[in-house]
Amino acid sequence: HPTMARRPGASLLVAAVAAAALAAWSQLAAAFFGPFAGAEEKEKFVLRVCTKCVGRKAGGGYNPRWALQKAVEAAEAAGRPAPEIEMSSCFGGCDFGPNVRLVRGDDAIPVVVGNMTEDEQVTKSFLSVMSEEQAQRVFSLTSAYMEDPPPPPAQLKDF
After folding, report:
1. Beta strands at 45-50 and 100-104: parallel, antiparallel or unpaired
2. Which of 66, 94, 110, 152 is the most buried (most CB within 10 A)?
3. Cα–Cα distance between 128 and 159 in angstroms, integer?
4. Whose CA is closest to 109, among 130, 91, 87, 135?
5. Is 90 within 8 Å of 71 (Cβ atoms)?
6. DSSP-assigned beta bridge partners for residue 86
7. 126 forms bridges with which residues in the sheet?
């Protein structure tokens, strides 16, 4: 047989097919066996701002969402951990509002973080977040918690 001449771009085609096959295999294997070591997803943390507190103008009508969002953007730009920010239905305590709650994971488990007041620990919410300084406190405590969170609470299993 005469030597076959290589077609221009053939090696690129082979590389693209190999990459696509590897990606498909990785997705299939992850579906059956879970994510590979080093490929695990980061745990989700969300700061929820009570819409009822904000709507009722609790605490003078301050909405901490915008200060929290600004802090998230600065932290992300610096490569530091930052939660998502979202508005949420009421979680109680509007008399002490506006309130913000940190939740973790897909099940949105409320979290108690270090340096919360006793009342905040009981309600699992940051209470009376009525200024940028107080919103910054919420963000700072949340970010510190996210840098080294304890293991998530054990999940209940069906037997």
Report:
1. antiparallel
2. 94
3. 42
4. 91
5. no
6. 48
7. 100
Q: How far apart are CA 73 and CA 69, in angstroms?
A: 6
Lookup: tokens for 71 = 């802090």
Closest to 53 in 3D by CA, of 95, 16, 13: 95
pLDDT, tens digit, 9 for 90 and up, residues 29-86: 555 555 544 445 679 999 999 999 999 998 898 999 999 999 999 999 999 999 999 9
Nearest of 136, 129, 137, 142 to residue 70 by alpha carbon: 136
Q: What is the pLDDT of residues 82-115, one digit of tens each?
A: 999 999 999 888 889 999 999 999 999 999 999 9
d(CA 157, CA 92): 29
